[in-house]
Each structure stands twice: as C-alpha cells, then as structure tokens.
Design goal:
This protein has one domain (31-154): Globin-like. The chain is globular and about 35 Å long. It is mostly helical. The protein has helices at 2-22, 41-46, 49-66, 71-74, 79-93, 105-109, 116-132, 137-147, 151-154. Helix 3 (49-66) packs across helix 5. The protein is built from 9 helices and no strands. It binds protoporphyrin IX containing FE.
Length: 157
C-alpha cells in the first residue's frame, strides 16, 4: 500500500528534477569574447607580447582589406578602433596583461549577415599574417582553437 502511493510521487520528483536539469536555459548566456586561459601565457610570449600582437593585427587588417571576401565589411568602419579591440581581445585570450573592454561577439556582429565562408576567409587572413610574423605553427593553432568556437556568435547567415 505504502509502495503504491509513494512510487508515483518518487517518480514525479526524480523525473521532474532531471527535466529541470536538461531544460534549455531561457536567457542564452553569451559566451565570453575573451576567455582567459593561464596555460596560454607562454604562447603570448611566442606572439611577441603586446607589441608583437599590435604588429600582427596591423598586417591582419591589411590582409582583410586586400581580401575581396572581407573588405566590404571593414571598408566603412573605424578600423583603428577595431584593431585596438582585437589587440586587447587576443592579448587577454593569450593570458597577457590586458583588459578587453569591447563589445561581446554576438552584439558587435549582429546584423552584419556574416556567412561561414566569410568567417573562414578572416581566419585565412589571420593565418597569413601569423605566417608573415613567424609565429610558430603550434602557437598559431592555440590561438585559432580559442577563436574557432566564436563562429557561433559571429556567423548569422
Ligand atoms: C573569431 C572571429 C572574430 C573575432 C574574434 C572578431 C572580433 C572582433 C572585435 C574584437 C571587434 C571590435 C569590437 C568592438 O568594437 O567593441 C570586431 C568588430 C568587427 N568585426 Fe569581427 N571578429 C571576428 C569575425 C569577424 C568576421 C568573420 C567579420 C566579417 C567578415 C567581422 C567583421 C567585423 C566588423 C565589420 C566589425 C566592426 C563593427 C563596427 O564597428 O560597427 N568579424 N570583431
């Protein structure tokens, strides 16, 4: 008798809790645009610190402007500002002594209608710049591994 009344109650509680745990979050928290990873400090040095990153981002922007797949996006924006934010963002990602105060990735790219192919083009342009600056391949991949998941916030088309 006790078993018969308690079993459904037990079931309801356990299933209810399990469902609450797997239920999707309603607020969709936005990913951190500059996830810091202490393990990447040596990689920051391989990029030549903040000065190295600044020189790298200068060439990255030159590549973005020379690339017909990415140029239209950057032609009419404050490129000096974007470069400054990119330096800070990459610096934080590589655990350098910087602070990223720019917008989050979803917010800044919303409405730009960026396709996956355009995202890949930007990554190629970054790789070209990193090659030019002699960044070791392994170090390049450490940074790219942090940037790759950002396609979720950047690609909207
Ligand atoms: C992992 C990939 C990417 C990262 C980490 C990234 C990062 C950033 C950052 C830090 C900014 C400046 C934020 C601010 O002003 O507060 C920015 C702006 C911008 N990004 Fe990206 N971005 C990425 C991909 C792309 C792609 C694929 C495109 C287009 C092909 C793009 C186009 C732009 C444009 C046009 C702006 C300037 C927006 C404005 O000032 O109105 N981004 N991005």
């Amino acid at each position: 008798m006790i078993k018969q009344t308690l079993l459904p109650l037990f079931f309801t509680l356990v299933v209810g809790v399990a469902q609450a745990q797997v239920a999707p979050s309603v607020t969709h928290p936005v990913a951190n645009p500059a996830p810091r990873d202490a393990a990447l400090k040596p990689v920051f040095d391989e990029f030549g610190g903040k000065a190295g990153l600044t020189a790298l981002i200068d060439d990255f922007m030159v590549n973005l402007m020379a690339d017909p797949r990415t140029r239209p996006f950057f032609a009419n924006v404050d490129r000096a500002h974007v470069k400054g934010e990119l330096v800070d963002q990459f610096c934080v990602i590589l655990d350098g002594p910087c602070t990223y105060t720019g917008k989050n990735m979803e917010q800044v790219h919303r409405g730009l209608d960026i396709r996956r192919s355009q995202f890949n083009a930007l990554v190629e342009d970054l790789q070209k710049a990193m090659d030019k600056h002699g960044i070791p391949f392994r170090a390049q991949n450490k940074l790219l591994a942090k940037l790759a998941p950002m396609h979720r916030e950047v690609v909207t088309k």
